[in-house]
Design a protein that fits this description.
By secondary structure, the chain is of the alpha/beta class. The protein is 47% helix and 12% strand. The chain has 17 helices and twelve strands. Strands 3-2-1-4-5-6-7 form a seven-stranded parallel sheet. A five-stranded parallel sheet has the order 10-9-8-11-12, with helices on both faces. The chain starts with a strand and ends with a helix. The model has no long low-confidence stretch (mean pLDDT 90).
Amino acid sequence: MMHITIFGAGSQGDIQPCLRLGKGLQNSGFQILLAAPQNFAGLIGEQGVPFYSLRGDVQKIMSSETGQSFMENGNTNLFQSIRAMRKMVGQVAIQMAEDVLDACRDASALITLAVFAPFGKTIAEICGIPLILVEPTPVLPTRNFPAPGWIVQKNLGGIHNRLSGFVMLNVIWQWYRPFVNEFRERFGLRRMNASDFHHILNSTILLSAYSPKVIPHPRDWSDNVHITGHWFQDSQSVWQPSVELENFLAQGESPVYVGFGSMAGCDPERLTALVLEALSKSGQRGVLATGWGGLNTTNAPKHVFVLDSAPHGWLFPRMSAVVHHGGAGTTAEGLRAGMPTVIVPFIVDQRFWGERLYEIGVGVKPMPAKGLTADKLAESIHRAVSEAQIRQRAESLGKMIRSEDGIGNAVKIVTHYLGA
């Protein structure tokens, strides 16, 4: 039996694609070990995927003063993002690399998120095993669209778009550069640079966990990039809602979902008050998901139901629209449910998804969390709920996405590549 180690770190939206691919590979006969930070042990254990604990609590890092400032200020200054990320990951980057290396002792292959490709390549070199990359959001430069995380999320032409991709790759590389090279030097490996990062992405099997209906394969990407379709988890259908939630849903019109996942920000009380005011002004009932603390209320009005979290696959089809931060996983669930979407981006790739959904007509223009007002949000919610064209396009795209088998496609590619 072939052993595969999968390395994932970040928010829950980063871990879930790794977990879902791991479960799919496990069901196809592979022996999987998912290496992830300790705070995801419960999430991974529920799926019956063997877990290897990495040092470093990402939730704790993101809720630190530096993490909150990073989420509050978004992408306004790329150089500041480098300093902030180094300060956040510097505590744990090499520890995680050491732990992943240990998790690969019996591995025949390593799968890791594409943003960690330099670490993944280093560990694969040390172990003498093949590397496969996973991306929930595009990382390779292309002429087709500006890079996720780039300051200008407007299509200003092929040269601008492709250049933005190289700039953002260099920014991501600078997040980890000192730690990658310190780790490589321990094992007598040559130092890496930004062009090595691009070469790894361009020459390694890359599984893109999104729909070709949302992002068609650009002509300037090589054949190593496989756009498989979104990766969903169907077992969440066994989840049972509380009686209170069921009663709330049954008592009136379908509500609007509002949740910002792992985006905590510096002032959750202010953000919550703004959301409640926007729901009231738009005349909509709401379901608020508190997530990692981005929303925080103990005194919600009767037309709003507050919960910690619920499987999006269960909850979203019961909504009239979804308002969220624009993480790749949450965005995919909204698309699958055929829901009109309002994206309030905080950091990195989230504005990219907001602009993408607006461009294909299934969402309204994204509104960055910084500078958001109750009036702006109320107007966007009203548009998402009431405009027939947006709803029709969203429902049509949802049907197409539900017919895709992203995990199945990814498992076939991995099986073929590894000759298993």
